[in-house]
Write a sequence for this structure.
C-alpha cells in the first residue's frame, strides 16, 4: 500500500490541479465544437452557451460536407502518415542502434551528419525536392509525401532513440552474443522491445507534424486524389473565412480525425510506456 | 550518397576490448545494413536539397543569371540596415520566444508529468489525453481557435474576464506591439507542453520501483522524494526536451504565420527568423521572393542552431550524464 | 502524373462514347488565388466555357491567397504548375514572364478589346508585350448600413472629408453602431481599404501616381502625407479592440448589423448582399473640400496567362481567347458581382450594388493603387511598408509624418526614377 502522504497536495488537491489544466486544454476545442452546431445568430449572440432549440443549426456542416470528399482526404492522410511513421521508426531505430552500439571511426561524424537535419527546416529544400519528384514521376503520389516525411522525421527519431538505446543494459546484449545471437536478432528481439516506450513516444510526435503538414501536400501532391485532410480543411477555412458556421464546422471536422488517430495509437503508446516501466 | 555508404561499410572497426567479439566480417556488414536505409532517404531528400539551397547564399541573381559573390550576402544581411534591422530584431524576438518556452514549458511539463505518474491516480489516461490534445492539433486549428477566442468581436475572452469581474483587463493582446509576442509564446506553450510532459512522464515511469521503495523506507516521501530522487533521474530527459524546444523555436514559423501573417505584425513585433526567412525566400504579396537572400538567412539560422546544439552536446549533456550516473 | 493518366482514361472513354468527337479531350488546370470563387467557377463559369468548347475541360484549382505566390513559383520552377495561371498585376507576373514561365499573349484574338491602360498591369515596362489577358478590375469605396444612417439622423452619404468625420461623430454619439468597421492586425486592410481607398483624392489619382514614379514628387509631400493624416483620425471611430480585429471580424461586424460604415472593395458585394439583413448603400471616397475633383481606385486585379510549359498549348490559347471575349466578360461580371470587366465594351452589370459602385467610374476619374507599378520592385518593398505604416498610423504608434519619412527613405534606398 502506498500511504496517502506520498501525495503532494493531497488527493483532492492533485485532482483539482489536473482538472483545471484539463479545462485549459479542452476549453478552446470544446468552444469550437459547441459553436459549430449553432446558427450564425447563436454563435455571435451567446458564444459561451450550449446550443439550444433556438440556436441549434447544422448549416455549417451542410456547407462544408457539400464541398469535398472528407473521407477520401482522411484516407490519404492515413496512408501517408502510417507509411512515413513505419519508415521513420524502423529506419530510425536501426540507425540509432548502429550509432549507439558500435564503435567505428565515422560514428561521431555520422551522428552529427544526421543531426544536421534537425537544424534547418526541410521546407527550404522545396524546389530541389520538387524537381526530384518530377524527375522520378512521383508528383501527386502518396509515395512522394512518404519519402519526404521519412527524411524529415529521421533526425529526431535517431537522436531520441539513440539516447534511450545507450541506456539498454550491456550485459543483456553481451549475454545474447555469447548465446550466439546475430546482431540483427539482438536488435530486433532484445533491444527494440526494451526501448518501446521511446519508440512509442517518437511515434506520437513524429506523427503530429506529418499529419498536420500543409506545405508539402500543397506543393507535391495537391491533386484531388492525394489531397490530405489538413490541406482539405485549409481550403475550407480559406474559402469560408467569413462564414463562421462553416469555419467552425471545418475546424471540428479537422480535429476529429486527429482524435481518432490518437485513440488508435494511444493503446500502443501506453502499452509501450508501461512495458518499459515495469521492469 | 554512395560515398557515405562506403564510409560506413569500409571503416575498419576498433577492436572492442570489453566485449566478446563476433566475427569481424559480419560486423562490418550489419553496421552498413543498419545505417543504409536511413542515410539513403535522409541524404537524398534532406541533405542534397538543403545543400542546394544553402549554396544559393553565395550567389546573387543579376539579370536572371546567378553570379558568385562569396560572403557578400552575409555582409549585407548583417550590416546593411535594410536587412540587419529586421534580422537582429527577429533574432531578439527568437531569444525571447525561446526563453519564455524554457521558463514556462519545462516546469509545467515536469509538474504535469510528476502528477500524472503518481501511483494509482484515477483518470490518468483521460488527463494524459486531454493534456496531449493541443499538441496534436495543426497550426491552422490552433491559430484559428485562439484568434477567435481573443477576438474583440466574438467576445469570448472579454466575457470570461467579465464573469470574474475583470472585464477591464481585456486588451486586444494579439494586436498590440507590447503584448503580441508574449501572447503568441503563451499559445505556443499551450500547444506544445504535451511533448515535454510525455517524454518526462515516460522517464518517470522508467524509474525503478525499488529505488522509490528504498527512498520511502528512508522516510523520503512527497515533494522531497520528487526533488531528491526523481528530478535528478529525469534531468537528461529535460535536457532533450530543452534542445528540441530550442531547435523548434528557432525554426518556428507556422503559428506566427497563421495568426499574424507573413508580415508578423503589428509593426513586425512578432517577427521571428522563420517568418523573416519565409517572407524573403518566397516573397509576400508584391514582394518578390529572393532565394539568395533567403538562403543567406537560412544559413544564419542553421549556424545559430548548430551553435546551440553543439553547446548542448559537448557542454551540458556530457556533464549531465556524469551527474546522472 | 495522375492527372495526365486520368485525362487519358477520360479521353479514351470520351472517344468510345462520343464517336463524333474528333480531337482528344484536353483538360486545362487553372491556378488561382480566388478560392472564394471555387463554387462560382464550378457552377457557372466552367459550364459556360465547356458548352461552347467541346473537347476542352477545365479544372479550377485555387490555392489560398496567402500561399498562392510561393506555391505557384515552386510549381512553375519544377514544371508542375497548371496550364492556365491567374496573374497578379505588375511585378509578380512580370518576373514570371521574364523567367520565360509565361508566354506573350499579344497574338490572342480579342486582345484589341482592351485599352493600353487596361493591359498595363500585365505588360512589359515598354508596353510592347502583354503576357496575361486582363479579366477583372476592382473598385474601392465605402459601403454603409442605411438603417444606421437613419438612426443617427444622417440624410445623405458624406461627400467631403469634413462631412465624413461629422457623420462618424454623429454615429459615435448615437452609440448604437460602431461607426467604422475596420481592424489593423491584418495590415493589408488598413493599407488597401484605408490608404489606397482615400488616397487618390489627395494625390490626384494618376497625376500623383505618375509623378511619384517619375521622381517629381515624394511621399513626404503634403499630398501624400494627407491620407495618413486622415487615417490617424480613424482610430476613435473603430470598434473596441480594433488592433486585434481581423479582416473577417470586420466583415462580420458589418454584416451582423453592428457597424455603420465599411471601407470596402467592390469584391465584397456578393457576400455582403447575401449576409446582411439590412439595406446597403455605397459612397465614393469623400473629397478633401467641396468641389474638388474626385478619384477612385479602379484597380487591375486579375488576369489569365498561359504556362509556357503547358502540354495543351492550343487548348490554352482557345481558353485565353475566350477570356478576351465579351462572352467571358458577361459570365464573369454576372456571376461575380464586384469584379468588373476591363474590356472596352463593358459588360452589362445587373447587381444593383455593383451598379452603384460602377457609377463611380463615370463620376470620378479612375486610377490604381499607388504602390503597384515599378515602386515595389526593390528592398524594402514599398507595398509591404505601406501595409505596416497604415496600421501603425491608425494604431497611433507612428505619426503620419514619421510614416511618410520612413516610406520615402526606404524607397530612396533603391529606387532611382528614370530621368
Amino acid at each position: 500500500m502506498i500511504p496517502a502522504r506520498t501525495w503532494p497536495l493531497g488527493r483532492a488537491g492533485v485532482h483539482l490541479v489536473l482538472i483545471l489544466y484539463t479545462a485549459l486544454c479542452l476549453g478552446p476545442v470544446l468552444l469550437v465544437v459547441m459553436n459549430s452546431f449553432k446558427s450564425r445568430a447563436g454563435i455571435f449572440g451567446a458564444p459561451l452557451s450550449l446550443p439550444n432549440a433556438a440556436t441549434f443549426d447544422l448549416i455549417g456542416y451542410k456547407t462544408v460536407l457539400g464541398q469535398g470528399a472528407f473521407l477520401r482526404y482522411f484516407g490519404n492522410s492515413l496512408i501517408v502518415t502510417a507509411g512515413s511513421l513505419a519508415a521513420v521508426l524502423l529506419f530510425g531505430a536501426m540507425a540509432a542502434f548502429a550509432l549507439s552500439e558500435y564503435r567505428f571511426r565515422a560514428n561521431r561524424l555520422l551522428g552529427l551528419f544526421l543531426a544536421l537535419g534537425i537544424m534547418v527546416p526541410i521546407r527550404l529544400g522545396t524546389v530541389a525536392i520538387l524537381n526530384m519528384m518530377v524527375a522520378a514521376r512521383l508528383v501527386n503520389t502518396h509515395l512522394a509525401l512518404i519519402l519526404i516525411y521519412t527524411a524529415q522525421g529521421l533526425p529526431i527519431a535517431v537522436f531520441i532513440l539513440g539516447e534511450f538505446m545507450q541506456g539498454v543494459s550491456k550485459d543483456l546484449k553481451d549475454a545474447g552474443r555469447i548465446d550466439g545471437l546475430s546482431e540483427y536478432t539482438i536488435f530486433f528481439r532484445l533491444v527494440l522491445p526494451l526501448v518501446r516506450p521511446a519508440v512509442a513516444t517518437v511515434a506520437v510526435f513524429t506523427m503530429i507534424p506529418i499529419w498536420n503538414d500543409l506545405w508539402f501536400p500543397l506543393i507535391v501532391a495537391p491533386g484531388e486524389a492525394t489531397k490530405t485532410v489538413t490541406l482539405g480543411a485549409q481550403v475550407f477555412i480559406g474559402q469560408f473565412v467569413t462564414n463562421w458556421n462553416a469555419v467552425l464546422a471545418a475546424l471540428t471536422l479537422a480535429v476529429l480525425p486527429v482524435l481518432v488517430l490518437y485513440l488508435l495509437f494511444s493503446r500502443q503508446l501506453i502499452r509501450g510506456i508501461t512495458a518499459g516501466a515495469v521492469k | 550518397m554512395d560515398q557515405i555508404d562506403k564510409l560506413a561499410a569500409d571503416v575498419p572497426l576498433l577492436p572492442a576490448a570489453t566485449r566478446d567479439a563476433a566475427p569481424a566480417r559480419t560486423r562490418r556488414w550489419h553496421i552498413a545494413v543498419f545505417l543504409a536505409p536511413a542515410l539513403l532517404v535522409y541524404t537524398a531528400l534532406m541533405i542534397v536539397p538543403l545543400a542546394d539551397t544553402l549554396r544559393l547564399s553565395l550567389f546573387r541573381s543579376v539579370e536572371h543569371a546567378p553570379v558568385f559573390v562569396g560572403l557578400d550576402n552575409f555582409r549585407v544581411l548583417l550590416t546593411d540596415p535594410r536587412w540587419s534591422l529586421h534580422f537582429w530584431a527577429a533574432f531578439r524576438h527568437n531569444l525571447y520566444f525561446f526563453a519564455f518556452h524554457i521558463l514556462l514549458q519545462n516546469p509545467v511539463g515536469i509538474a504535469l508529468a510528476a502528477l500524472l505518474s503518481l501511483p494509482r491516480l484515477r483518470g490518468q489516461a483521460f488527463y494524459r489525453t486531454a493534456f496531449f490534445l493541443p499538441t496534436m492539433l495543426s497550426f491552422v486549428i490552433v491559430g484559428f481557435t485562439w484568434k477567435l477566442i481573443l477576438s474583440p468581436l466574438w467576445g469570448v475572452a472579454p466575457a470570461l474576464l467579465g464573469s470574474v469581474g475583470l472585464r477591464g483587463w481585456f486588451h486586444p493582446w494579439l494586436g498590440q506591439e507590447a503584448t503580441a509576442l508574449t501572447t503568441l509564446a503563451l499559445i505556443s506553450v499551450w500547444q506544445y507542453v504535451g511533448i515535454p510532459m510525455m517524454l518526462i512522464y515516460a522517464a518517470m515511469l522508467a524509474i525503478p520501483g525499488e529505488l522509490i521503495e528504498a527512498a520511502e523506507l528512508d522516510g523520503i516521501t512527497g515533494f522531497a522524494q520528487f526533488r531528491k530522487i526523481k528530478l535528478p533521474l529525469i534531468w537528461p530527459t529535460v535536457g532533450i526536451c530543452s534542445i528540441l524546444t530550442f531547435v523548434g523555436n528557432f525554426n518556428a514559423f507556422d503559428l506566427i504565420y497563421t495568426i499574424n501573417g507573413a508580415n508578423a505584425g503589428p509593426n513586425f513585433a512578432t517577427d521571428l527568423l522563420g517568418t523573416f526567412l519565409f517572407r524573403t525566400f518566397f516573397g509576400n504579396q508584391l514582394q518578390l521572393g529572393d532565394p539568395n537572400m533567403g538562403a543567406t538567412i537560412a544559413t544564419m539560422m542553421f549556424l545559430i542552431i548548430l551553435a546551440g546544439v553543439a553547446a548542448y552536446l559537448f557542454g551540458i549533456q556530457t556533464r549531465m550524464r556524469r551527474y546522472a550516473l | 502524373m495522375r492527372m495526365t493518366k486520368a485525362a487519358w482514361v477520360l479521353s479514351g472513354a470520351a472517344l468510345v462514347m462520343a464517336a463524333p468527337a474528333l480531337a482528344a479531350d484536353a483538360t486545362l488546370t487553372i491556378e488561382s488565388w480566388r478560392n472564394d470563387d471555387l463554387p462560382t467557377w464550378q457552377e457557372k463559369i466552367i459550364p459556360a466555357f465547356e458548352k461552347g468548347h467541346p473537347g476542352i475541360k477545365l479544372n479550377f484549382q485555387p490555392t489560398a491567397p496567402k500561399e498562392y505566390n510561393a506555391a505557384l513559383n515552386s510549381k512553375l520552377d519544377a514544371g508542375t504548375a497548371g496550364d492556365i495561371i491567374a496573374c497578379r498585376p505588375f511585378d509578380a507576373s512580370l518576373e514570371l514572364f521574364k523567367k520565360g514561365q509565361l508566354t506573350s499573349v499579344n497574338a490572342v484574338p480579342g486582345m484589341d478589346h482592351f485599352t493600353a491602360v487596361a493591359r498595363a498591369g500585365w505588360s512589359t515596362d515598354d508596353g510592347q508585350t502583354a503576357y496575361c489577358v486582363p479579366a477583372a478590375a476592382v473598385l474601392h469605396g465605402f459601403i454603409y448600413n442605411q438603417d444606421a444612417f437613419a438612426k443617427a439622423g444622417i440624410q445623405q452619404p458624406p461627400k467631403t472629408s469634413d462631412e465624413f468625420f461629422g457623420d462618424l461623430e454623429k454615429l459615435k454619439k448615437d452609440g448604437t453602431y460602431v461607426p467604422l468597421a475596420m481592424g489593423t492586425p491584418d495590415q493589408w486592410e488598413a493599407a488597401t481599404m484605408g490608404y489606397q481607398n482615400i488616397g487618390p483624392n489627395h494625390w490626384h489619382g494618376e497625376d500623383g501616381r505618375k509623378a511619384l514614379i517619375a521622381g517629381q514628387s515624394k511621399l513626404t509631400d503634403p499630398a501624400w502625407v494627407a491620407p495618413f493624416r486622415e487615417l490617424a483620425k480613424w482610430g476613435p471611430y473603430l470598434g473596441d479592440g480594433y488592433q486585434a480585429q481581423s479582416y473577417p471580424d470586420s466583415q462580420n461586424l458589418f454584416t451582423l448589423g453592428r457597424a455603420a460604415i465599411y471601407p470596402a472593395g467592390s469584391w465584397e458585394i456578393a457576400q455582403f448582399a447575401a449576409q446582411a439583413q439590412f439595406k446597403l448603400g455605397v459612397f465614393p471616397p469623400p473629397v478633401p473640400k467641396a468641389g474638388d475633383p474626385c478619384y477612385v481606385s479602379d484597380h487591375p486585379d486579375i488576369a489569365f496567362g498561359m504556362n509556357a510549359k503547358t502540354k495543351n498549348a492550343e487548348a490554352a490559347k482557345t481558353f485565353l481567347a475566350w477570356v478576351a471575349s465579351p462572352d467571358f466578360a458577361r459570365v464573369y461580371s454576372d456571376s461575380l458581382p464586384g469584379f468588373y470587366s476591363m474590356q472596352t465594351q463593358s459588360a452589362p452589370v445587373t447587381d444593383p450594388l455593383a451598379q452603384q459602385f460602377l457609377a463611380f467610374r463615370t463620376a470620378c476619374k479612375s486610377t490604381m493603387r499607388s504602390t503597384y507599378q515599378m515602386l515595389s520592385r526593390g528592398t524594402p518593398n514599398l507595398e509591404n511598408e505601406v501595409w505596416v505604416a497604415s496600421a501603425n498610423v491608425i494604431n497611433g504608434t507612428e505619426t503620419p509624418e514619421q510614416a511618410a519619412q520612413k516610406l520615402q527613405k526606404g524607397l530612396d534606398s533603391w529606387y532611382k526614377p528614370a530621368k
